[in-house]
Amino acid sequence: MQDDCTRRGDWVLKNNAIGLALSQEQVSRYNLTMNRCYVRAEIHAKKPDEFGKYDYSTYLFDGQTAELLAYYIYKPDGGRAYLGFGCPDVGCIEEKVSACMNGKDCDPQ
Fold it and tell me: Which of 71, 66, 60, 58 is nearest to 7 (CA)?
């Protein structure tokens, strides 16, 4: 599973359609504590000078199942959208996503 995690992250990006003005990147990490592969995908403006024009989105996927576990989105107008981990705010989700990606305890249920 650990060796296969990067390939699974590439699969997530390949199967995610975005607009021409946007760019996406992914980081895949095998979490030994949870024995799972997690994929964090980020979608943002292609050009840095247009970051304030489009949403900046972060998604966490289960690398084995490609299931979306959580997301948080920062909107150009200052708004935020988020879902996952039963969190009451975007800061909580950011912390949980970071924990999953850094090999710490990660329970998305």
Answer: 66
CB burial of residue 103 (10 Å; 0-12, 13-18, 19+): middle
> Cβ(69)–Cβ(62) under 8 Å?
yes
Q: Which two tokens stand for residue 38?
A: 């997690």
Domains parsed from the chain with CATH numbers: 5-101 (3.10.450)
Tell me what pLDDT residue 13 has.
66
Mean pLDDT of the chain, nearest integer: 85
Q: Name the strand (E) or helix (H) holding 69.
A: strand 68-74
CA 54 to chain centre: 17
Residue 60 has pLDDT above 90, yes or no: yes
The larger pLDDT score, comparing residue 84 to residue 6, is at 84
- Which residues on neighbouring strands pair with residue 81, listed in sequence order? 73
CA 51 vs CA 10, 17, 22, 26, 97: distances in Å: 24, 19, 10, 18, 22
Distance in angstroms (rounded) separating the CA atoms of residues 66 and 24: 16
